[in-house]
Design a protein that fits this description.
Helix content is 43%, strand content 17%. With 506 residues, the protein is an alpha/beta fold. The two termini are 41 Å apart. A 5-stranded parallel β-sheet has the order 5-4-3-11-12, sandwiched between helices. Strand 13 (261-263) and strand 14 form a beta hairpin. The model has no long low-confidence stretch (mean pLDDT 93). The chain has helices at 39-57, 73-82, 86-103, 119-131, 206-218, 232-247, 278-283, 288-297, 308-330, 339-357, 362-381, 390-404, 411-417, 458-473, 477-489, and strands at 4-7, 12-15, 23-28, 61-68, 111-114, 135-138, 141-144, 168-169, 181-187, 202-204, 222-228, 252-258, 261-263, 266-267, 304-306, 421-422, 452-453, 492-497, 500-505. The structure holds zinc ion. Zinc ion binds at residues 29, 210, 235.
């Protein structure tokens, strides 16, 4: 089956074709770097990551641009409140976003570009539009004349009948029923950053930024444009208007929009106290791979209800996958291998590919892999799994994880690397009062991260496990159980398998 996507532009699920064979040129609206990205933002970024990973899996060369909006109404407002220069202010959120991306296993797009590095290109696009008669000036700002672009509204399907001729909007964000001429270049204001231009000093409108960066790196026509559904209007509608008015060519061919995320059944908002950044969840002890899993498991066109129960289930699902892979790699099976199980592995691979081909149906792709895990575990428990079946199962798991990227357990190492967890020093005694995997957390240190302090160090865990194994060999099971319980209190779970004792932090 061909790869199929729901295209917002046509309102239909259609076969996916690229303009250049085997190459996908894709623009993804990135974060506005005025604050830490929240889990609603990350739902979209995880979707875009699954998308790019699956395109690559399908053999496409992907050329992805993600912008960093580092000048707009919100960044200017917050930089002023912080008393910082705009570029210095946004730099700290760009850095935080980089770390968050790595924690969530988001692949790095080929181009991560800052709006303020492209001001001359933006000025050039406004000039081009002015030459073609699509602009007018008022009070030092330059506006796009919506009525002159006959296709205006084709993406969001807005009704333009109520639009008032000459009514303008300066804000970057506004509602559909307020459709009107939008600003391309905003006149300089006291206390705001500005750049020189032939139409006076000022700064770009937000919509202009994305049009310019998309066309600069991808060409005037390209394959995919994607973001969260809240950007369909006015952002993407205005991007189309500016770009197509200037070039006379179709801008992006396929428009993909991820639905909203809600939290525990309610709209996420600071006033409801259910607003979470990635860092908030990490401070509560949740693992990045579990968060990634939860954000990826609901197909992108379905609203996602983010719950803490769901997060725990996600963690358990990942454990099942990891345990299965552990058995596949570490257990010894009898020689041989039947065609039956190999055929099952092949069927599971086809099922998850079919699901993702179908407009990225991640829920079905997950179901396909868990069917395989169940069958594999059952065959192992019954002694029917043979050494020759191992490779086929491992291959499917590996392929599946190229897209979902949750099986490798890298959470702890990354949280230590980026300073979210302070490891207990080698040789240090375990914390006197054990309250789980970490001591009471230190307060957030200003970059949004609470530093968790480990209750017990790796070397101490290894020592305790060795002591427990000695106790078991000597028949002192009471002592072995005591050690096991102590480790559990410190948040360390141990598991005895045929291949030896494994441990992991809760
Ligand atoms: Zn954008």
């Amino acid at each position: 089956m061909a790869l199929r996507f729901h295209n917002t532009l046509t309102g239909q699920v259609e076969d996916f074709h690229t303009l250049v064979p085997n190459q996908v040129r894709m623009y993804t609206c990135g974060p506005t770097v005025y604050d830490f990205a929240h889990i609603g933002n990350f739902r979209t970024f995880v979707f875009q990551d699954v998308l790019r990973r699956y395109l690559r899996y399908r053999g496409y060369e992907v050329r992805q641009v993600m912008n960093l909006t580092d000048v707009d109404d919100k960044t200017i407002r917050n930089a002023r409140q912080a008393g910082l220069d705009l570029r210095d202010f946004t730099a700290r959120y760009i850095e935080a976003f980089e770390v968050d991306r790595k924690l969530l296993n988001l692949e790095t797009p080929e181009f991560m570009v800052r709006a303020t590095d492209h001001i001359p290109d933006m000025v050039a696009l406004v000039e081009r539009l002015a030459e073609k008669g699509y602009t007018y000036q008022s009070d030092g700002s330059t506006y796009f004349h919506v009525e002159k672009f006959k296709d205006y509204g084709k993406l969001s399907k807005i009704d333009l009948s109520g639009i008032r001729a000459g009514a303008r909007v300066d804000a970057d964000e506004y509602e559909k029923d307020n459709a009107r001429d939008f600003v391309l270049w905003k006149a300089a204001k006291e206390g705001e950053p500005s750049w020189p231009s032939p139409f006076g000093p000022g700064r770009p409108g937000w919509h202009l930024e994305c049009s310019v960066m998309a066309m600069k790196y991808l060409g005037e026509s390209f394959d995919i444009h994607s973001a969260g559904v809240d950007l369909v209007f006015p952002h993407h509608e205005n991007e189309i208007a500016q770009s197509e008015a200037a070039t006379g060519k179709p801008f992006a061919h396929t428009w993909l929009h991820a639905e909203h995320l809600i939290v525990e059944g309610k709209k996420m908002s600071k006033s409801l106290g259910n607003f979470y950044t990635l860092r908030d969840l990490i401070a509560k002890g949740y693992k990045p791979t579990a968060i990634r899993y939860l954000l990826a498991e609901v197909p992108y066109r379905t609203p996602l209800d983010f719950t803490f129960d769901g997060l725990l289930q996600a963690q358990r699902s990942i454990e099942r996958l990891r345990n299965f892979r552990y058995r596949l790699t570490m257990e010894s099976f009898t020689a041989g291998g039947g065609a039956g199980l190999k055929a099952r592995a092949e069927a599971a691979r086809q099922a998850f590919e079919r699901a993702l081909d179908d407009n990225l149906n991640t829920a079905q792709a997950l179901a396909a892999i868990f069917d395989l895990v169940l069958e594999g575990n059952t065959a192992m428990d019954r002694g029917q799994f043979k050494d020759g079946d191992r490779a086929a199962f491992l291959d499917v798991l590996e392929r599946w994880d190229r897209v979902f990227a949750v099986i490798e357990d890298t959470d702890h190492a990354k949280l230590v690397e980026f300073g979210f967890i302070k490891p207990r020093e080698a040789g240090a005694a375990p914390a006197a009062v054990s309250a789980g995997a970490h001591d009471a957390q230190a307060p957030a240190d200003g970059d949004g991260r609470a530093v968790l302090v480990e209750t017990v160090g790796d070397d101490e865990i290894e020592k305790q496990i060795a002591a427990r194994n000695r106790a078991r060999r000597g028949g002192d099971f009471a002592q072995a159980d005591r050690i096991r319980d102590e480790l559990a209190k410190a948040g360390v779970m141990i598991e005895d398998t045929k291949a030896g004792t494994r441990w992991k932090r809760k």
